[in-house]
Amino acid sequence: MNDKRYQYILYLIVFVILSTIAIQVFWNYKNYQSNKQQVYNDIQWSLDNAVETYYSMLSKKNFLTIVDGSEADDQTDFSDIGWDSILQPFKSKLKTIEDQNNGNDASLKITTIDISGDDQSQLDSIDGLFFNDVFNTYEDSLNKKILASDKVIVDKFTQISKDKKSGLTFDKGKQTISKNKVFWGKKSRDSLKLIKGLKTIYIAMQQDSLDYKKLDSLLVSELKNKGVYNDFYLTHFKNEDTLYASKSSTQPEFPIKKNAKTTYLKGDETITLHFKNPVKETFKRSLLGISLSTLLILAVISCLFYLLKIIKQQKQLSEVKNDLISNITHEFKTPIATIGVALEGIQNFNIINDKEKTKTYLAMSNNQLSKLNIMVEKLLETATLDSENLELIKDRYNISEVVTTIVEKHKMQNDKLVNYEIDDNLFAQVDVFHFENAINNVIDNAFKYGGNQIEVNVKSDSSQIKIAISDNGTTLTKANINRVFEKFYRIPKGNTHDIKGFGIGLYYTKKIIEKHNGTIQIELDKQKTTFKIVIPNA
Prior knowledge:
Number of helices: 12
Largest sheet: 7 strands, mixed
Low-confidence stretches: 92-152
Shape: rod-shaped
Helix content: 40-55%
Structural class: alpha+beta
Distance between the termini: 49 Å
Order of helices and strands: HEEHHEHHEEEHEHEEEEHHEHEEHEEHEE
């Protein structure tokens, strides 16, 4: 794979990642906006439902229907009792009602049609409910006839029992007391209106102000049912005047408003809910989508990076393969050419009779065949290591002698300065053939690729033997220090092959040391490169 193609693939992967992130961000943004609108709708619904529920509950108490008894058993004659005697016990109650209405803002109004009050609890505190069918207006009944006198002009009144399910109607003209049935609620009133022939009296109690605590409690309950726990406050407007505001001194002004949509409010009244931006509630509803989107993005990015890693490895493997083929061709070509020349000389130049030349050519060919055999053996050993079929024959050997022999051999073949310090009689359980080859590879690399000064140290502690092989070369860098143990890897030098090799020496060494339960590491500084080998001692 060439660099340009690899670059195109990299650009494509980056484009796919950015596109995926952009699409997911846009989708999450739209999802967030949708959830935000849904929260707004839930808040509007909660406000409307709270107001509707409040007035619905109110209507069950504020609509009263009294059905007069029509049967003879339902009526009692009181002609032998004076009307004033009957009315006397109720005068104090009528006076109480008058006292409650002594002012501009009437809290209770009694007519044949309706009873109005600011506070329903005032009605509950009265033992009996009274009305006069000759009273036409509030002023006629109370202000004029009751206000300045203890005389109460009443021709007919009804008392409702404490259980509010029945009542008694006292009629001065008929001199009778009639039993009544009492029905509460707007639905009951509307149903009874459909029945013809009933003698009924309909009473509607209208409150001029709201029980804001009750309304607030209903609103909190509705919002809780919708999963909204946002801070808010209520305001009640009539025209431009504020009748009520639940905003505390510590609450800031909330810019988002929703007006209650209900037919119960008068045309000039508005109930407004003020609340802060519901970011928290919206984020909660969007959390699942955001989490799934994030996981999807991470999965896509991970897969693409893994794909890029595989492609990069394939690219490196291709480069290593090409280098290996080039190295093998170079390494095999020399001995094959040498053997070919020797055989050609023997065949064409009639040197068979010249035993010395024949011997020389045969020795040369044999030497080159030995080199070919060694190279083939190295490749076969590498294949064996990969298949995990290599069996080590371990025995107790003197590691000091093994390392010393290898160092002395290389010292005689090279003119580099070699210093070594090896403790005597250090023993370990090793396969001496493979272990010696492994150590030889590291020392051989130090002589081939290292500097002019080489140091070899072998020390031991209670459980380990430590071998350190150092040189002052600068061939290794941090960029390739982690790759030198890879199979067939050689430090890139272009097309230059000044030193022979297949790039399998250190790979072989690492595998052999690991099979001996040991480790091999590289320490790199500005002036020295050190290979540290640690194996268990015997």
